[in-house]
Design brief:
Blueprint lengths: L39 E2 L3 E9 L3 E8 L4 E8 L5 E2 L9 E2 L5 H19 L10 E7 L2 E7 L4 E2 H8 L4 H20 L2 E2 L8 E3 L5 E3 L6 E2 L27 H17 L29 H10 L11 H9 L28 H6 L18 H10 L112 E2 L11 E2 L28 H13 L3 H13 L5 H17 L3 H13 L3 H13 L7 H13 L6 H12 L7 H12 L6 H17 L1
Length: 697
């Protein structure tokens, strides 16, 4: 440990105010899971105060003692999987063995972020990676320290930024983004809080935690910020430079108006688009600039600028090389450039294609369902730097809209439902919300393909092909037409005797009346379709979940409950599993809604996870007091997961969500110690914490 000021990283040798920054270093109180100020990492970097914290990482101010300069040190610390008590050790520890595979996979992805950023070290408009290493059973990325304010902070401080000022700020960084794309990297998280304005007026692009290689394997991970992410990011496919173009234009729109643009899945190309032109909200753009910006915000990727270089030329009237620019002639139907092939007209109308059933699961979703359930039950649900939390309320009008009315009704089991056509996109606005499954309209997987026959009915409207015979033809009066004349006063029998058990008295020589005494109606009715089987519905729900369609999967599970296939408790457990998967995909608002429903069904597991959402402000406004109350209620109810005792103890010890109370902290640490849940080493650590608290008391 070194005696330094955590605020400015200068040596601090005397009690009182720091001579460098004038603040009192003793006022800084790190959390028990933070690396304490003065700690040395990799025998080179001294740690200072926390600059920011999210669900999967903590960023510290640091000092590079070799080069004597300030740095930013980003630590991999997924709070949903690991813990640390800094008074005993700086090493992180997984809550359970089941957490270990997910933790190691996330750590590898974290280090991949460093390697991705290292490829861009020659681009001055992008924050530079200086070093990366592993220590304390985790990993660290060392970056240049940027001092300034983000575009989000500037907009919040001064209101809408004038167009001339904003476009001049962004001019150099747009060239850096084009160079990034030419290097084969997509950022996928361009937003006002990831663009830092330095005191010199330069702007730098930060946070490459969501970046991917353009020419790499197609990603199935859904990572986005609502209002700034284009539609293709909601499906994880068809992403390219045009994806970052949309996010950059949404950022410009936000800074010009002070309002978050509507979510891409709520928008339509045309007159019904809820996105208003910036000039209608007070922006001082020229007509040419506004036209360029609106094209960059086109809902369909094929209608956007295909590169940042094109957007730059349209906004500034010159190319990145400084040559005069002439607007190209618009060619309707023109698709992507070299990155993706031309789209068909149907694809442009319907949006991204829907995944095929039984499609391979996305990377990062390979854990067995049981392991994920154990993780969700034992840990909080959090996110990397609150990636999915909306920046401001503004124009962001709420959840993704539900599926549109008039959705085509799938065939019944008897008629063997068809697999979704991968060439047809999902209806706009139905990206991730509830479908018509609530009314029983749930697509079923094709489980019996060999039963389909070619009988000349192909192409008929649904409900006409394959219908069973209904028996004798009917007259307009509803009477049954006989195929053989019957004499008056005598019995007449139709050609389908199974329709009636007794002869029918004829009143006319050519017609038979309806049976006077019959145990069955003369007209046979089409048998009611059998409900889908439990196996069919389970397969459909798992398919939806594997492709990130969590609300659709939830609808299928509700149908299984209504049919008696699963109990209410099992339904709550399935909803918790879906919520945990949504959390892994950074879909925090979806996660919260699913946990809320599960909690309403009596799930304490859902309550535990929701408490962490409130603690960190993920998908809901941050409310540490509410989080503490939920933790305390679970602990007082002796919830089966004893880690809740630990979290209550930490809240009392650190004064998070409740006044600091050392006696209560000691009480709950002892409750945690006596659960029999801890290993011998962990017991020693807890005893050390209790001893330290007793000494302070």
């Amino acid at each position: 440990m070194e005696r330094i000021c955590p605020y400015c990283m200068q040596e601090w040798t005397e009690e009182g105010l720091c001579p460098g920054c004038g603040r009192n270093p003793a006022d800084y109180r790190p959390g028990s899971h933070h690396v304490p100020p003065g700690s040395r990492l990799n025998d080179r970097y001294v740690v200072g105060r926390v600059l920011g914290e999210g669900g999967f990482g903590i960023t510290y101010l640091g000092l590079d003692t070799n080069l004597e300069r300030l740095v930013a040190i980003k630590e991999y610390f997924p709070t949903c999987l690991v813990s640390r008590e800094n008074s005993l050790s700086l090493s992180v520890t997984c809550y359970t063995q089941n957490n270990q595979p997910a933790y190691e996979k996330g750590r590898a992805q974290f280090l991949k972020e460093a390697r991705t950023m290292a490829k861009l070290e020659e681009i001055p408009e992008i924050v530079q990676v200086l070093d990366h290493f592993q220590a304390n059973n985790t990993a660290y990325i060392v970056m240049e320290f940027l001092e300034g304010e983000t575009l989000k902070a500037r907009t919040a401080r001064q209101g809408a930024i004038p167009a001339g000022e904003l476009l001049e700020l962004l001019r150099p960084v747009m060239g850096g983004m084009e160079a990034m794309h030419q290097a084969g990297i997509l950022h996928r998280d361009i937003s006002p809080d990831n663009l830092m304005v330095l005191p010199s007026g330069r702007v730098k692009l930060m946070d490459f935690g969501c970046a991917k290689e353009i020419q790499g394997q197609p990603t199935q991970t859904v990572t986005l910020k609502h209002g700034f992410a284009p539609r293709e990011q909601y499906t994880g496919r068809d992403q390219g430079p045009w994806t970052d173009v949309y996010a950059l234009c949404a950022t410009i729109d936000y800074c010009l108006t002070g309002k978050v643009p509507p979510r891409a899945v709520e928008r339509r190309d045309g007159s019904q688009d809820p996105l208003l032109p910036p000039t209608q909200l007070g922006a001082d753009l020229t007509p040419q600039q506004e036209q360029a910006l609106c094209k960059g915000l086109a809902v369909q990727a094929a209608n956007r600028w295909q590169s940042v270089a094109q957007l730059y030329a349209a906004l500034y009237g010159v190319t990145l090389e400084g040559a005069p620019w002439t607007p190209p002639e618009e060619e309707k139907g023109e698709g992507h450039t070299e990155f993706v092939g031309r789209r068909t007209k149907s694809e442009e109308q319907t949006g991204p294609t829907e995944p095929q059933p039984n499609q391979k699961r996305r990377p990062g979703r390979g854990l067995p369902r049981g392991a994920k359930g154990a993780m969700a039950a034992a840990v909080c649900t959090v996110v990397v730097l609150a990636a999915a939390v909306p920046l401001l309320s503004g124009r962001d009008s709420g959840p993704v809209p539900a599926g549109e009315a008039g959705e085509e009704k799938p065939q019944t089991v008897q008629q063997v439902s068809e697999q979704p056509d991968a060439s047809k996109g999902e209806p706009e606005g139905d990206m991730s919300q509830e479908s018509a499954a609530a009314q029983g309209q749930v697509d079923l997987p094709q489980t019996q393909p060999d039963l389909q026959e070619t009988d000349g009915t192909a192409g008929e409207p649904e409900g006409t092909a394959g219908e069973p015979e209904t028996g004798p033809a009917q007259t307009s009066s509803g009477q049954t037409q006989s195929t053989k004349p019957a004499q008056s006063g005598s019995s007449a029998q139709t050609t389908k005797p199974a329709q009636s058990t007794q002869p029918t008295q004829s009143t006319q020589p050519t017609q038979s009346t309806q049976p006077a005494q019959s145990t069955q109606p003369a007209q046979s009715t089409q048998p009611e379709p059998a409900p889908p089987t439990e196996e069919e519905l389970k397969a459909q729900a798992e398919n939806y979940a594997a492709n990130g369609q969590y609300f659709k999967a939830a609808e299928v599970y509700r149908q299984m409950n209504s049919l008696g296939y699963i109990s209410q408790n099992k339904l709550a457990k399935r909803l918790c599993d879906l919520a945990f998967d949504a959390m892994l995909d950074d879909e925090y608002e979806i996660e919260v809604q699913l946990y809320q429903e599960a909690m309403a069904l009596g799930s304490l597991e859902a309550k535990l996870s929701l408490a962490s959402n409130y603690k960190y402000g993920l998908g809901v406004p941050q409310d540490e007091e509410r989080a503490f109350r939920m933790y305390l209620e679970l602990a007082q109810a002796n919830y089966e997961n004893p880690v809740v005792f630990k979290w209550v103890a930490e809240c009392y010890a650190d004064g998070v969500g409740t006044p600091r109370d050392l006696e209560q902290a000691i009480y709950w640490w002892n409750r945690y110690l006596n659960t029999g849940y801890l290993k011998e080493k962990e017991q020693e650590e807890v005893r050390g914490i209790i001893a330290a608290l007793e000494a302070e008391l």
